[in-house]
């Protein structure tokens, strides 16, 4: 029996959501009651009419060859042995995810190919999921399971398996799965979302002592007092909202009438619509590119399931095309790493073999956006920078949309986040320079005014990638300003928390306060005074300007720092990428070089104050410290200073640009010369924000 909801039913439900005045938006939400699906064909994300297209793309489209080979190549004997002997039914770290993903993959393979053995393995996986007593590891009040990530993922996996296996599963077994889906998937998601919606009514979250997560997190536990409040505008609200919506849609499409359906749907829709206030108008998302992709997938897939099953044609004011542009502008291909990103915060690909073994998928959202809006730019991103294709990429791919490549050879992207990325293109050899301004977001670091430089296939100045999440980890300081290519004052950075609540946002603020551009160059300035002053009341100003010369190529960094009281030593740090042991740092009088196998950054430094230049490592465990060496440019103690660091960039074997400085009381001039070009930059630094003039 499929369950139908009329426009009146859902308007009534949404009237209970005053925070978003959703009832008043009824006309925008376009509620409808379409014809309900029938037969054994899929109902959740597509119908039987779509199967010929999906099967054709699965079997013949070159885009999806790797996906096809991956699914066909799964070691089914090993998976069956694992399910029958090795699975940990309290294994929320990886076991439950592995079982759910395999159930979903094998049911999809069956739907695409008719492979009976794949269907049988999917059924065995779902039956194993039914044996897990809890689908997530958080508890409210030590009693009620809270759905955060694992329960939503299981809800989606079981929903898809039911939908794609169809009549391969008896109606009696299907109904038993749907019952468990409601109890262990939908209801925990509801509990978590209700806690987030009403944090002051929440008893408190703790980790289930039966879960394998407990031993890991019990010695130095996080304080979860504010966890529901912190979760209100982050990816961990989108995940249960998406899982709840998809699970409820599956129960409505395949199950018997469920008395919980109304409150589940109201909570899911309310929570999904909240994210209209989280994404910025240009589509940017503050947790960074990887968390943006995860969040966006949770939201748009929920929309699709609600629409396809006839519950609601829910739309959103989120700028989806802009969200793909956000992903595009945060892309940073390097040699051997075509899907590298500007890794602000906890973003970026793990470099260690164990954690990087999992595939990286970012093309489902672009393909869905291309299909929904006829967006050729999104189609191009999905084809070229979306990493590997998942089964969701295939489901939402529309071959009728013509891909449109980026056309601007030189571009500076100013996001609504106040993150800035300048680039000469989207190839590995192209120049990319980023400056992290803006405010605080979940998964942030103490990284205001930090920067990255990539050129000729190599990351030359980096934001050290993937520091630990745990505050008790001895490498926690990588998250602080000391672990970034940024400014320290007497060895201290700007405001950050101690991590006891997790990786949540702070109030540290920076703002882009000036910018300009001309033929062959651009500059931008970020004022991070607030971020530093809330940590140290003596700080008067911390301002960084970056000048990018695209054709030379070269980058000039101007740091203007002043104090209200007591002189301080001002330090600019620049980190190199030594994960592979192939980064060389060297210093000379008032200069340094960072060399990678295929490129180098040759730098000269200047200040009116005496400065020292030396290489160093963070005081963290050696195995991690050696991967993140840095150059320290440090002044003598002073009340105010301007440090100028000019980088000439080149390929291995190139002659570095010649860099020279002259100065007066109120200005500093920088000249960079190569055999083909000469550029100069005048910096008038008497005011808080330097005035920059460029001649090319």
Describe this structure in words.
33% of the residues lie in helices and 21% in strands. With 696 residues, it is an alpha+beta fold. The protein has two domains: 7-396, Chondroitin AC/alginate lyase (Glycosyltransferase, Alpha/alpha barrel), CATH 1.50.10.100; 411-653, Beta-galactosidase, Chain A, domain 5 (Distorted Sandwich), CATH 2.70.98.70. It is globular.
Q: How does the SSE layout of this entry go?
A:
Blueprint: H1 7-14, H2 26-29, H3 51-60, H4 65-72, H5 76-86, H6 95-113, H7 116-131, E1 138-140, E2 144-146, H8 150-165, H9 171-197, E3 205-207, H10 212-218, H11 227-230, H12 235-254, H13 261-274, H14 289-308, H15 320-329, H16 353-356, H17 364-373, H18 376-384, H19 391-396, E4 411-414, E5 419-423, E6 432-436, E7 450-455, E8 458-461, E9 487-489, E10 511-518, E11 521-527, H20 529-533, E12 539-549, E13 554-563, E14 570-575, E15 584-588, E16 591-596, E17 599-606, E18 611-616, H21 622-625, E19 630-635, E20 640-651, E21 658-663, E22 667-673, E23 678-684, E24 691-695
Antiparallel strand pairs: 1-2, 1-3, 4-5, 5-6, 6-7, 7-8, 9-14, 10-11, 11-12, 12-13, 13-20, 14-19, 15-16, 16-17, 17-20, 18-19, 21-22, 22-23, 23-24
Helix pairs in contact: 5-7, 6-7, 6-8, 7-8, 8-9, 8-12, 9-12, 9-13, 12-13, 12-14, 17-18
């Amino acid at each position: 029996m499929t369950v139908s909801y009329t426009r009146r039913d859902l308007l009534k439900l949404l009237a209970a959501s005053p925070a978003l005045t959703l009832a008043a938006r009824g006309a925008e939400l376009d509620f409808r009651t379409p014809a309900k699906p029938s037969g054994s064909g899929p109902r959740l994300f597509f119908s039987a009419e779509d199967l010929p297209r999906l099967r054709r793309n699965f079997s013949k489209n070159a885009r999806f060859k790797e996906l096809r080979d991956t699914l066909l190549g799964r070691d089914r004997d090993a998976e069956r042995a694992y399910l029958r002997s090795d699975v940990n039914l309290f294994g929320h770290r990886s076991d439950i995810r592995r079982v759910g993903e395999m159930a979903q993959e094998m049911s999809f393979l069956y739907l695409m190919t008719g492979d009976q053995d794949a269907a049988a393995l999917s059924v065995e996986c779902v039956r194993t999921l039914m044996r897990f007593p809890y689908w997530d590891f958080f508890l409210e009040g030590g009693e009620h399971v809270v759905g955060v990530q694992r329960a939503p993922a299981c809800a989606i996996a079981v929903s898809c398996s039911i939908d794609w296996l169809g009549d391969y599963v008896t109606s009696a077994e299907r109904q038993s799965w749907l019952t468990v889906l409601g109890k262990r998937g939908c209801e925990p998601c509801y509990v978590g979302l209700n806690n987030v919606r009403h944090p002051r009514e929440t008893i408190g979250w703790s980790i289930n002592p039966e879960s394998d997560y407990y031993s890991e997190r019990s010695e130095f536990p996080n304080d979860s007092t504010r966890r529901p409040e912190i979760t209100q505008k982050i990816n961990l609200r989108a995940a249960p909202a998406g899982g709840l919506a998809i699970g409820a849609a599956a129960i409505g499409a395949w199950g018997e009438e469920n008395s919980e359906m109304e409150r589940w749907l109201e909570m899911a829709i309310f929570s999904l619509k909240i994210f209209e206030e989280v994404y910025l108008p240009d589509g940017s998302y503050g947790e960074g590119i990887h968390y943006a992709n995860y969040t966006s997938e949770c939201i748009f897939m929920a929309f699709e399931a609600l629409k396809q099953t006839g519950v609601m044609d829910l739309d959103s004011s989120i700028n989806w095309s802009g969200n793909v542009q956000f992903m595009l502008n945060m892309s940073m291909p390097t040699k051997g790493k075509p899907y590298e990103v500007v890794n602000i915060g906890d973003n970026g690909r793990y470099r260690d073999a164990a954690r990087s073994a999992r595939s990286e998928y970012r093309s489902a959202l672009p393909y869905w956006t291309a299909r929904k809006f006829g967006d050729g730019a999104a189609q191009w991103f999905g084809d070229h920078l979306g990493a590997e294709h998942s089964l969701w990429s295939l489901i939402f791919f529309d071959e009728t949309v013509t891909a449109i490549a980026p056309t601007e050879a030189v571009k500076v992207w100013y996001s609504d986040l106040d993150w800035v990325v300048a680039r000469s293109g989207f190839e590995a050899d192209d120049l990319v320079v980023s400056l992290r301004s803006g405010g605080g977001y979940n998964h942030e670091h103490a990284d205001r005014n930090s920067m990255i430089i990539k050129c000729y296939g190599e990351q030359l100045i980096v934001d050290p990638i993937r520091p630990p999440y745990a505050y008790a980890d001895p490498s926690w300081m990588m998250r602080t300003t000391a672990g970034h290519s940024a400014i320290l004052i007497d060895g201290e950075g700007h405001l950050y928390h101690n991590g006891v609540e997790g990786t949540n946002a702070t109030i540290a603020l920076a703002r882009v306060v000036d910018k300009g551009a001309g033929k062959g160059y651009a500059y931008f300035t970020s004022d991070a005074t607030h971020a530093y002053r809330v940590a140290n009341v003596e700080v008067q100003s911390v301002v960084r300007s970056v000048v990018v010369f695209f054709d030379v190529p070269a980058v000039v960094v101007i740091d203007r720092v002043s104090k209200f009281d007591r002189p301080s030593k001002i330090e600019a740090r620049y980190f190199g990428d030594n994960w592979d042991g192939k980064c060389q740092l060297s210093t000379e009088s008032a200069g340094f070089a960072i060399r990678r196998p295929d490129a180098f950054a040759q730098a000269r430094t200047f200040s009116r104050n005496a400065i020292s230049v030396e290489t160093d490592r963070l005081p963290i465990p050696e195995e991690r410290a050696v991967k993140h060496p840095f150059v320290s440019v440090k002044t003598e103690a002073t009340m105010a200073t301007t440090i100028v660091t000019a980088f000439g960039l080149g390929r291995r074997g190139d002659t570095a640009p010649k860099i020279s400085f002259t100065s007066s009381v109120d200005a500093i001039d920088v000249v960079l010369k190569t055999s083909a070009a000469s550029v100069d930059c005048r910096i008038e630094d008497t005011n808080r924000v330097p005035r920059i003039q460029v001649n090319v």
